């Protein structure tokens, strides 16, 4: 259960936040044991000591706070939790520890973010693996429709993409605007990512947003990306929503020759 209840800060809370942020376990323990700092005290944004320590990766401070009764699933105003911060920053030891004490994978931020989406977006493969083992939903989406696979593709994180695809991620799941993981990778020229995505038969045609991965690749100017997509069966004769052929989006002679060659082969 994710919670957003607020408790009042004590005058010594700032010192406790400093200790949690810097990993000063002795000071943090001293303040907590004094009885004058609530273990779940918050700053003006709803941030807790546990969130701060988790973000910084100070496992000893995280352990101390949890053992002193910190509520693991409290949420900041933005909806973020200690687990979210640990996952976002790639602190797998903290993530594993929080799961031992009941961390929830279901808490969402205001934009729909989850710990899995954050770990995928920042390329933390081991954290993604830990989250999936503890029940994170591989089909989580931001409110704009972006999936873990989409976010990993956007960053070019090949190892995360392999893990997500082998765990059942949907290769063609689009964002609300119609953009897919393949189109995003084509736009950025992440050829290793494209090779991996192509193993799972992604859509090569015109997407809901009115364009294709090939159009995106041509616009990016990456000839290797264009060649990869053409080899996989992308059609250079498809027109986008503006009625443009891929060849009409570039003046790069090498790309134009490649497109014309492929179109000639298709006609023959």
From TrEMBL:
The UniProt record lists the keyword RNA-binding: no
ANK repeat ranges? 45-77, 78-110, 111-139, 144-176, 209-241
The alphabetized UniProt keywords are:
ANK repeat, Repeat
Residues in the signal sequence: none
Pfam families the UniProt entry points to: Ank, Ank_2
What transmembrane ranges does the database entry give? none
Q: Does the keyword Repeat apply?
A: yes
Q: Which InterPro entries match?
A: Ankyrin_rpt (IPR002110), Ankyrin_rpt-contain_sf (IPR036770), Dendritic_Spine_Reg/Scaffold (IPR050889)
SMART domains the UniProt entry points to: ANK
Give the residues annotated as coiled coil: none
Stated name of the protein: Uncharacterized protein
What organism, scientifically named, is this protein from?
Answer: Lynx pardinus
């Amino acid at each position: 259960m994710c919670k957003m209840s607020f408790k009042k800060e004590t005058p010594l809370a700032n010192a406790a936040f400093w200790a949690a942020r810097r990993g000063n376990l002795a000071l943090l323990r001293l303040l907590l044991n004094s009885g004058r700092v609530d273990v779940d005290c918050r700053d003006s944004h709803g941030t807790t000591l546990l969130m701060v320590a988790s973000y910084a990766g100070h496992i000893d401070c995280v352990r101390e706070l949890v053992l002193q009764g910190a509520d693991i699933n409290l949420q900041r105003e933005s909806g973020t939790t200690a687990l979210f911060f640990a996952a976002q920053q790639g602190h797998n030891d903290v993530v594993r520890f929080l799961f031992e004490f009941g961390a929830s994978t279901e808490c969402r931020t205001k934009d729909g973010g989850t710990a899995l989406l954050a770990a995928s977006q920042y390329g933390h493969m081991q954290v993604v693996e830990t989250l999936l083992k503890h029940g994170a939903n591989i089909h989580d989406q931001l409110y704009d429709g972006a999936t873990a696979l989409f976010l990993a593709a956007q960053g070019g994180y090949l190892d995360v993409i392999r893990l997500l695809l082998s765990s059942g991620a949907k290769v063609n799941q689009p964002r609300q605007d119609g953009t897919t993981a393949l189109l995003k990778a084509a736009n950025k020229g992440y050829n290793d990512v494209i090779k991996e995505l192509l193993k799972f038969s992604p859509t090569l045609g015109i997407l809901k947003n009115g364009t294709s991965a090939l159009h995106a690749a041509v616009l990016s100017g990456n000839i290797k990306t264009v060649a990869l997509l053409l080899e996989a069966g992308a059609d250079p004769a498809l027109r986008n929503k503006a009625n443009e052929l891929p060849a009409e989006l570039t003046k790069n002679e090498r790309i134009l020759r490649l497109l014309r060659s492929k179109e000639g082969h298709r006609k023959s």
